[in-house]
Design goal:
- The complex is a heterotrimer of chains A (310), B (326) and C (339).
- With 310 residues, chain A is mainly α.
- Helix content of chain A is 71%, strand content 0%.
- Chain A has 13 helices and no strands.
- In chain A, 47% of the residues are buried.
- Chain B has 2 domains: 235 residues, P-loop containing nucleotide triphosphate hydrolases (Rossmann fold, 3-Layer(aba) Sandwich); 69 residues.
- Chain B is of the alpha/beta class.
- Chain B starts with 5 loop residues before the first strand and ends in an 8-residue tail after the last strand.
- In chain B, helix 5 packs parallel to helix 6.
- Chain C is of the alpha/beta class.
- Chain C has a single domain, classed as P-loop containing nucleotide triphosphate hydrolases (Rossmann fold).
- In chain C, a hairpin with a 7-residue loop joins strand 12 and strand 13.
- The chains are: A mainly alpha (310), B alpha/beta (326), C alpha/beta (339).
- Chains in contact: A-B, B-C.
- Chains B and C meet through helix 5, helix 6, helix 7, helix 8 and helix 9 of B and helix 5, helix 6, helix 7 and helix 9 of C.
């Protein structure tokens, strides 16, 4: 029974999927494994996962999917409500809002993935080192983290973008800097607790180098926690990017992002709410979906919810 | 002591822990986990260290393994003081001192196969080159401890507790160490399985000149395994000597209390006035650490800490002002 | 111990417990018969997975249902039916509780945010209908009884301010506050040091005698059980394989599993010797071997053991106790099986 296997492996946190090297699982087909993984993830997180995957597909194929040009003004029909031709209506330049939301997804996804990968690599590595080495290194990183976390996230991002200039690359850099301390802290504490396990003492007693102990015995166990944190980073990044673009210091028009679309629609919010509602809804849906996935993964990773096969 | 060649010499080791979360100004006393412990392990010999929780036996094990190096004192292994070694030199010497842990489940990486776990020390020390050679040696090690070489492909959670501990022993022995520190190796196991593991350890020692440091809270297990028994209390050795002497004719009142309390030790059970709980050696002042629980304590005991000293020709050493004569 | 088996306090017949986690239910206790006389102390010994703790919890009625399912032909204490879950409150509800239970880890039984005095007083007010001031006095008396030094002031301490042994004493006091007629002690000393264990065992012996309270003492350690009980039940894979007076069972075990357990236990005074290790490990409850569950590990096993579950039969002609073995009475040592 594939369902039991998930529970049988107490270390399985990553993605809710059975580890491919778990032998009892290996006999199950790929489809069974997928079903088993989703079942242990739960209903809501699975819905979230589907939404996020759909959005990735939309972002990748945006130019093909978008029914109209997202940037070229078409002044025939401005500020129109939803219709058969323009499902989400048109904006003040007569551009199709649906097309702009679809293309805007690209920016959100790029920022989301870039910031997540950036903070995972930098914050994750620093967190591993801080938790494992401890001492002075840990104290210095800890205080830097505290300083960064003391500044409200959006202010920090504004300050960095103001220094570096606007544009998608600088937005990513600014948001990554803001997210690193969060990732660092989570990974550090996971590393600390894994380091206490007899398994790690055993690896040191064997005579393994610190690098081997860290990468072979600690990192795989921290991975699950880091993945959960990644989902929240992803959601934060999308939210902050929208915020920066809304404030006009993120990605610049006419390049559509959900944030600058809402910003542009502000003027007509009373008469023509469609323009703001659809990009706003896109933000809400994607952030909610990602958070659902994160919650599902966190429940899987929570030691209290897992039976330990002893 | 059949063989006089010394493998390990622990000399006057001290280890103090700062209490976690101590605040400046708080009068949190430092926990003196080990206070001036010295002992010698000869080739082919098992030294059994016995005591209750908080007596410092695990701290001592961690010190011998250099996992938690002592604050002061020397740990001389085969002529080398390990406390002076760092980095690569320390890692190289670890090949010759291996360890078996209490809980075979948490001491094995659940994401590695038994084969990878037992092969790891070989890889780390470059003792076998190539997959084939490692696989062959792992297979040999598995058969050696009574497991099937095919078990190499399995994961720890697929093995029973006893099998896991056998795997833990195979990992320790695969690099052919001179000394193995066994930290409560059977206390997580059922009685019937414990007997298998103890027998295995006796056999493994009989076929080689390996030395064991065997740490346990269970006097019966130590009695069965050790040549030399070392009784610890509050971070110090209170009695040590040939196991038959220490357990049949205890000189120290604490050893006597322990034996009384051990079910099935052939004594009629009685809770003595001396029973009570070992306080981690927080503050024993200058006197004997056992004074508060001792049935034969006198005024001197509260003022002067007794030194560990030889009292007769049997090789027993005892830290008591009024040792019982053998 | 003034065992009065003729007046049974607890009677359990054909107790069965199964657990269902999703799939097909797995029976882990297969028809246990147990009786405890007034003021009698009875032991259950067995290894992990033998069903000893589940048996205790089933009697106490604290197994989570579902997944657990408990059935029994009879399960009653002093005439009160215990089937249907939950220990009934005796009489008018101000008489305490007929059964109380203590566990391996005392800390989990004590609420960490309450002073131990409040926990005790609360129990006395609620379960015994005492007034606050009476309850406080009684709480001090109980703590005194379990030999907590300076009970009068210690009553104001929180659980974490006590050592493990002291916490177990407090839990025992809490159990006594309910004035139980039967105390179920599940590995109460396993987490404790030997010297502390000796004290707790002595305390249990005293209290049991002075209150003519029945006791079921559950442990994996034969030596510990022998110090507190007059009758012992040896469990293996969900069945009682041997039962009888403790001296008789330990001196002359009839079941090969009992023999093997006694041989396997290390003893002070056996220096540098191999003991008998029972081969293999206890069976997985979800796929027990056919026939006698012990046969794969038993040196005396023959074809009949592989096919047929042995009946419960008397240990000795005319004596008390049972042994469930096709080869009951044959000796592992005589068969040379211990080498």
């Amino acid at each position: 029974m594939a369902r039991v296997d998930i529970q049988a492996d107490p270390t399985n946190l990553a993605g809710g999927m059975p580890l491919p090297d778990s032998p009892t699982v290996a006999v199950a087909t790929g489809r069974q494994r997928l079903v088993a993984g989703l079942r242990s993830l739960g209903v809501l997180p699975t819905i979230g996962l589907v939404v996020v995957l759909l959005l990735v597909v939309v972002a990748v194929f945006a130019p093909l999917i978008a029914p109209f040009d997202a940037t070229a003004p078409a002044s025939i029909d401005t500020l129109a409500g939803p219709s058969g031709a323009h499902w989400f209506g048109t904006d003040m330049y007569g551009r199709d809002v649906l097309s702009r939301v679809i293309v805007g997804a690209q920016v959100s996804m790029v920022v989301g993935f870039a910031v997540t990968i950036g903070s995972l690599v930098i914050g994750g590595l620093l967190g591993l080192v801080a938790g494992f080495v401890g001492g002075l290194v840990d104290r210095i990183l800890g205080q830097l983290t505290d300083v960064l976390l003391a500044v409200p996230g959006i202010l920090l991002a504004i300050a960095i973008v103001a220094m570096l200039g606007s544009g998608i690359r600088n937005v990513c850099i600014a948001l990554t800097i803001g997210q690193i301390p969060l990732m660092l802290r989570v990974v550090r504490s996971a590393t600390l607790s894994i380091s206490q396990r007899p398994m790690v003492r055993a690896a040191r007693a064997i005579g393994a180098r610190p690098s081997r102990v860290l990468l072979r015995h600690i990192a795989p166990y921290v991975w699950g926690t880091a993945v959960v944190q990644c989902t929240f980073t992803f959601a934060h990044a999308i939210l902050y990017e929208a915020g920066l673009s809304f404030l006009g210091i993120g990605v610049q028009p006419p390049e559509p992002t959900w944030g600058n679309m809402v910003s542009e629609a502000r003027a007509f919010i009373g008469s023509q709410p469609w323009n703001a509602i659809f990009p706003g809804l896109a933000i809400v849906v994607v952030v909610l979906a990602i958070n659902l996935v994160g919650d599902g993964l966190r429940d899987l990773a929570d030691p209290e919810s897992r039976g330990r096969g002893r | 002591m059949t063989n006089t060649s010394t493998v390990l010499e622990v000399k006057d080791v001290h280890k103090t822990y700062k209490p976690a979360g101590s605040v400046v100004g708080a009068k949190a006393a430092h926990v003196r986990a080990v206070q001036g412990v010295s002992l010698t392990v000869h080739r082919g010999q098992t030294v059994g260290i016995v005591g209750e929780s908080g007596c410092g036996k695990s701290t001592l094990a961690n010190a011998i393994l250099m996992l938690e190096p002592p604050d002061t004192g020397e740990i001389v292994f085969d002529g080398t003081d390990m406390t002076r070694l760092r980095g690569g030199a320390l890692r190289r010497i670890r090949r010759r001192i291996q360890c078996v842990f209490q809980d075979p489940y948490t001491a094995l990486n659940a994401r590695m196969t038994i084969g990878q776990i037992i092969g790891e020390p070989l890889r780390v020390h470059g003792l076998a080159k190539g997959r084939r050679a490692i696989k062959a040696q792992v297979g040999t090690a598995l058969s050696h401890v009574g497991l099937n070489p095919r078990d190499a492909r399995r994961y720890p959670h697929e093995l029973s507790g006893g099998q896991r501990q056998r795997a833990g022993i195979a990992r320790a022995l695969v690099v052919d160490p001179q000394l193995v520190v066994l930290d409560e190796p059977t206390s997580a196991l059922d009685v019937s399985v414990q007997a298998q593991i103890l027998n295995l350890l006796l056999d493994l020692q009989a076929e080689s000149e390996r030395s064991f440091v065997f740490i346990s809270h269970d006097l019966a297990v130590v009695s069965q395994m050790a040549h030399v028994a070392v009784v610890m209390y509050a971070g110090r050795i209170v009695e040590s000597g040939p196991v038959e002497e220490v357990f049949s004719r205890p000189r120290h009142p604490y050893t006597d209390v322990l034996l009384d309390a051990t079910p099935g030790a052939g004594r009629s059970p009685r809770a003595t006035a001396a029973a009570g709980e070992t306080r981690a050696a927080l503050d024993v002042g200058q006197g004997c650490p056992f004074v508060a629980r001792c049935p034969i304590a006198q005024d001197t005991c509260a003022q002067v800490a007794p030194e560990l000293r030889s009292v007769d020709a049997t090789g027993v050493e005892v830290a008591c002002h009024f040792p019982r004569s053998a | 111990m003034t065992a009065t088996v003729d007046t049974p306090l607890l009677t359990v017949e054909d107790l069965r417990v199964s657990f269902a986690y999703g799939g097909r239910p797995v029976e882990v206790v297969h028809g246990v018969d147990l009786s405890v006389g007034v003021g009698e102390s009875v032991g259950i010994v067995g290894e992990s997975g033998s069903g000893k703790s589940v048996t205790g919890r089933a009697i106490m009625g604290i197994l989570p249902t579902p997944p657990a399912r408990t059935t029994a032909k009879r399960m009653e204490i002093a005439g009160q039916d215990l089937r249907g879950g939950g220990v009934p409150e005796a009489g008018d509800g101000h008489q305490g509780q007929p059964i109380a239970m203590i566990f391996q880890n005392p800390f989990t039984a004590l609420n960490p945010v309450f002073r131990v005095g409040s926990t005790l007083t609360e129990a006395l007010v609620k379960r015994r209908g005492m007034s606050r001031s009476d309850a406080t006095a009684e709480a001090v008396r109980l703590l005194d009884r379990v030999r907590i030094p300076n009970a009068k002031s210690r009553i104001r301490n929180y659980p974490h301010e006590f050592s493990g042994g002291m916490q177990q004493r407090i839990v025992i006091a809490l159990a006594l506050a309910l004035e139980p007629r039967l105390l179920i002690a599940d590995e109460p000393t396993t987490a404790l040091d030997v010297t502390v264990q000796a004290e707790i065992l002595e305390l249990l012996r005293e209290i049991q005698t002075e209150r003519t309270m029945g006791m079921i003492f559950i442990s994996h350690a034969l030596g510990v059980v022998a110090e507190v009980v007059s009758r012992v039940n040896v469990m293996y894979a969900g069945r009682i394989v041997e039962s009888g007076p403790v001296g008789s069972v330990y001196d002359d075990p009839k079941h090969p599993y009992t023999q093997a357990l006694l041989l396997a236990a290390p003893k002070v005074g056996q220096f540098r010797t191999r003991t008998f290790g029972i081969p293999g490990s206890p069976p997985d409850p979800s796929s027990p071997p056919p026939g006698c569950a012990f046969h794969p590990r038993c040196a005396l096993a023959t074809d009949v053991c592989r096919d047929t579950v042995p009946d419960v039969r008397p240990r000795l002609a005319g004596g008390s106790g049972t042994a469930s073995c096709h080869h009951a009475g044959e000796s592992l040592v005589a068969e040379g099986a211990t080498r």
